[in-house]
Each structure stands twice: as C-alpha cells, then as structure tokens.
Amino acid sequence: MSARIFQRPKSAMQSGKARISEWVLEFEQSEARRPDPLMGWTGSGDTQAQVQLTFPSKEEAQAYAAQYGIPARVMATPPKRLKLQAYADNFR
Length: 92
Hints:
By secondary structure, the protein is α+β, with helices and mostly antiparallel strands. It has one domain (about 5-10, about 20-30, about 45-90): Double Stranded RNA Binding Domain, CATH 3.30.160. It is about 10% helix and about 25% strand. It is built from 1 helix and 6 strands. It has one helix at about 60-65, and strands spanning about 5, 25, 35, 40-45, 50-55, 70-75. The strands form 2 sheets. It has a 4-stranded mixed beta sheet with strand order 5-2-1-6, with helices on one face. A two-stranded antiparallel sheet has the order 3-4. A hairpin with a 6-residue loop joins strand 3 and strand 4 (about 40-45). The protein starts with a strand and ends in an 18-residue tail after the last strand. About 5% of the residues are buried.
C-alpha cells in the first residue's frame, strides 16, 4: 500500500487560487481495474485507491505517512509558466 504526495494543481476552469496550496496524500492502486461483465463499467475491489487525504503542508503529509508506515513518494510541483498575450495577437 504505497502512496504519493503532491500539491493539488489548478484546474483549467479555475481562475482563483482556492485549494492550490494544500497537499494531497493519495494511495496508489494495488490491483488492476477490470470491466464489469454486466454493465461494462471499469472498477476494482481496491477501496484504498478512493481515499484522498489533504494536508496544509508537505511536511505534515510526510509525517502522517511516516507515522502509519506508509511508503510515500513526493511528486515535485511543476513550475508556473505565464503566457503573456495581448488580445490583438489573435488577429495577426
């Protein structure tokens, strides 16, 4: 039961900065997903993959994983890139 710790990215539909400063501990899947024979939906018996824990800092997430013996890897936060563009650039 391993986990990954990452900082929540801003969605494409989000213009504000709500919830982008929190860190998430998410468990990785321990078994592969398979299609349901009746409905065709994908699923698995692994309920840990549905759990997401949020923390205010990376250190608190790492401390939680260490306290409960969860092997966790920290995913680096990608750098923010600004695309400076003027409205007039659409007509060139």
